[in-house]
Amino acid sequence: MLRLYGSARSRAVRVLWMLNELGLNYEHKDYAPRSAETKTPEYRALNANSRVPTIDDDGFILSESMAINMYLAKKHKSVLYPADPKNEALAWQWCLWETDRLDRQIVDHARHTNDLPANERDPKIAAAMWDQCVQSFGVLEGALSKNEWLAGPAFSVADLNVAGALFRALVLDLSKWPKTQAWLKRCYDRPAAKKALAMRG
Predict the structure, then answer these.
(1) Is 176 helix (H, G, I), strand (E, B) or coil?
(2) pLDDT for the residue numbered 125
(3) pTM higher than 0.70 for the full model?
(4) Going from the N-terminus, what domains does the chain have, and what CATH number goes with each?
(5) Non-local CB neighbours of 79 within 8 Å, separated by 6+ positions
(6) Which of 93, 91, 57 is nearest to 76 (CA)?
(7) Residue 108 · residue 125 · CB < 8 Å
(8) Is the C or the N end of the chain the one with fewer CB within 10 Å?
(9) What is the DSSP letter of 9?
């Protein structure tokens, strides 16, 4: 059976979403980021970075949530993995784009506006990260003004991975980007998304 290491309150939430979409049976090790469990020799043998998520798929070890989801969707011949090479390439493009242009930025914005204790927040960091998020939302808006989904005619691993990284945007005012706002709602209206998000508590 596939084993997933990583709390729903981490980037593992994207993998939980994918597992729900695929309807797979799995064992879940609810390891929080930077927890003692991630620093043990046993876990470091699986992921030398001591990060989550990691999967053990019958002895095949893989980390990085974007790669895990690509692997799972393709391995299980899911319609979420684009069959057309061009749409496959677009899926990879958007996943790589998100890790560069939105992942750290939206996390740091959240940390310095809400997540950290008030005395540890830095308004300058929050503002700088928001400026970068604004640019990236503009890019998404442009793409979603041309197509309903990011990599082909239907919801795919590209949408799951990018939207999965944007759960923090669900509480933001995205009215300046109506196509992005509507797309994010479509993604999170999926039962598998709701189930994964509920696991965050």
Answers:
(1) coil
(2) 97
(3) yes
(4) 2-75 (3.40.30.10), 85-198 (1.20.1050.10)
(5) 154, 156
(6) 57
(7) yes
(8) C
(9) T
The pLDDT of residue 201: 76
Q: How confident is the model at residue 129 (pLDDT cuts 50, 70, 90)?
A: very high
**pLDDT by residue (tens digit) across 2-61?**
999 999 999 999 999 999 999 999 999 999 999 999 999 999 999 999 999 999 999 999
Mean pLDDT value of segment 55-72: 98
Rounded-to-integer distance, Cα 201 and Cα 195, Å: 11
DSSP 11: T
pLDDT of residue 83: 96
- At position 146, the amino acid (one-letter code) is K
In 3D space, the residue among 72, 56, 18, 11 whose CA is nearest the CA of residue 195 turns out to be 18
Tokens of 170: 């669900």
Q: Please state, in angstroms and as integers, the Cα–Cα distance from residue 119 to each residue in 101, 115, 122, 129, following that order.
A: 27, 11, 8, 18
Amino acid at 89: A
Burial of 22 (0-12, 13-18, 19+ CB in 10 A): middle
Give the position of tokens 């749409």: 87
Q: What share of the chain is helix, strand, coil (3-state, %, to 5)?
A: 60, 10, 30
Question: From its phi and psi, is residue 70 left (phi > 0), alpha (psi between -120 and 50) or beta?
Answer: alpha
Cβ contact 110:168 at 8 Å: yes
The first and second tokens of residue 185, run together, are: 């709602």
- Decide if pLDDT at 189 tops 80: yes
| Average pLDDT score over the chain | 96
